[in-house]
Amino acid sequence: MSDQGQVGRIIETPDCVAEGAAWLAEQDSRMAAAYAQTGPLPLRRRPGGFSQLLSAIVSQQVSVASANAIWARLEAAELTEADAIRQSDDETLRANGLSRQKARYARALAEAGIDFDALHHRATSEVVRELTEVTGIGVWTAEIYTMFSLGRADVFAPGDLALQEAVRLLFAMDKRPSERELRAMSENWSPWRAVAARLLWAYYHVEKNREGIR
To answer: Domain locations in the chain?
Structure first.
């Protein structure tokens, strides 16, 4: 695992995830109990670039199964790259599963001209700020991209409903924590907040028998 100044630690291998999970289990008995139930956690590293951000947009506010189905249609139609989006009309995008709103978001992303390589060298806060300037990319989408495609070890996504529900269950809360409440809670899991997210998604899967994230 590397330490790159303002970028922080990068999750590169399953050993990195295991290191973070062991640290979390040592810090919090509830995390230890969750880890005992889930077993080894997935690496969840993804490539960077346009298609990964588009995939995150597709996943917004729909179930994992629905997002997978829509993404499969876009892949089959070869509509996962910026040039293809720019050359397609809204009717084509909607015919392949994008809502009117998400078609607009996809087009905004295609026109944004993001330097994806440069994102690897910027602080997480700067990455989130730049990505959220694009119409349709909110904090959740930017944090998911930073976590999975850039491999940042200390980023969380407290707006994620599955994470909120997992925390409600694990911490025996009466209701799901709000995004603000969960962001504050996640400070306790620094510098391994991205591994805490992986652990909580895995715990959600165990408890609910459904996937919480693509």
So the answer is: 5-44+154-208, 50-148
